[in-house]
Amino acid sequence: MRLIDRWHRQLNYLRVSITDRCNLRCIYCQTGPVFHKQNHDDILRYEEILRIITAGIALGITKVRITGGEPLIRRNVFSFLKDVSHLPGLEDVSFTTNGLLLERHVQDIVAAKIQRINVSLDTLKADKFIAISGADRWQQVWNGLIAAHTAGIFPIKLNVVAMKGLNDDEWLAFADLTRHYPFWVRFIELMPVGHSDLYAQRWVSSDTIKKTIESKFGKLIPLEKHVHDGPAERFKLNDSKGEIGFIHAISHHFCQTCNRLRLTANGCLRACLLSDQQIDLKTLIRQGCSDKDIQQQLIAAVSLKPISHQNLDSPIACSEQMVRIGG
Ligand code: SAM
């Protein structure tokens, strides 16, 4: 049995949010009013998450990304990461972080056998970092990046959410960064998540970014796709150490190849990031369901997967905040 949807897409990638809490408050992620954090009891326990991942592996899940909220603030996260990375059948385990705790925990990450990470960094300027994230912590994130790089973690992807009028003067600086460091910069198109008019005001296409970079550095060199690429279209500058990717989730959506399923911190399965449809798995698990029942729910969630994301003309396609879903 495999996780294959109505349109014959095979899902092998599970994104797992382990907390809805975060130590930053980025404007595109925690949109709208301050929300009430979920109670400790409403969040899946690590054993429950490991059970769900194991059920997923039996159905063909081979890739897991841990996210949040900020995953590194959850207690005992490093022993959990170690448990996940040792699950037989997984080929790729990684996490996404805002980088604040990277420097302090870089050896814990190495010990947990996590080889690849994504770090969110939308600006190379400390003052703009405050405007985007609400905290004066740019240097701390940068120190974390350098510590991870020095410890041999590779690849380190830099997630840059592109926002008109906010970081559109930094495309060239991010491109230039790849000439000096082996970072994989990923420009991500802003997505209409949560209640906010940010999308209407700030959205910018990845084509615009690519053109800006090419106008200064010349034609980008396309890179061959490899199995752990995800949806990014990848390029490099001549003689660069790193690479540049574009995730055009909106302008040229890649729904036809989407292989993802998401598990929220409170135990709901979501088959499409931009849809509010979900299945509550936590309640079933706490009622004592079997591993077969969990597999049935994973299959049911996959059957909800729409052919592509809906309502993109609406300023809000998904009413839930990204911090609660996990990006
Ligand atoms: N706290 C971690 C971090 O900052 O990377 C992990 C959680 S965060 C929700 C995961 C990813 O979602 C980040 O790379 C972030 O940039 C992305 N993200 C959040 N809201 C987004 C939005 N509205 N559009 C595009 N990407 C978004």
Bound small-molecule species: S-adenosylmethionine
Query: What form results from the Cα inertia axes?
Result: globular
Helix-strand category: alpha/beta
SSE order in H/E notation?
Answer: EHEHEHEHHEHEHHEEEEEEHHH
Give me the Rg, rounded.
19 Å
CATH arch. level architecture: Alpha-Beta Barrel
Task: Identify the strand order in the major beta sheet.
Answer: 7-8-9-6-5-4-3-2-1-10-11-12
The CATH homologous superfamily name equals Aldolase class I
Number of helices: 11
CATH C-level class:
Alpha Beta
In whole angstroms, how far apart are the ends? 27 Å
**Total number of distinct structural domains:** 1
Overall pLDDT: 93
Strand content: 15-25%
DSSP strand count: 12
- Major β-sheet profile: 12 strands, mixed
Low-confidence stretches are none
CATH topology: TIM Barrel
How is this structure best described in words?
The chain is of the alpha/beta class. The protein has one domain (13-325): TIM Barrel. The chain has helices spanning 46-58, 77-85, 102-111, 126-133, 138-150, 171-180, 198-202, 206-217, 281-286, 291-303, 322-325; strands spanning 13-17, 63-67, 92-97, 116-120, 156-162, 184-189, 221-222, 233-236, 243-247, 260-263, 268-270, 279-280. A twelve-stranded mixed sheet has the order 7-8-9-6-5-4-3-2-1-10-11-12. The longest helix has 13 residues, at 46-58. The chain starts with 12 loop residues before the first strand and ends with a helix. The mean pLDDT is 93. Residues 22, 28-29, 67-68, 70, 96-98, 120, 159, 161, 188, 190-191, 193, 322-323, 326-327 line the site of S-adenosylmethionine.
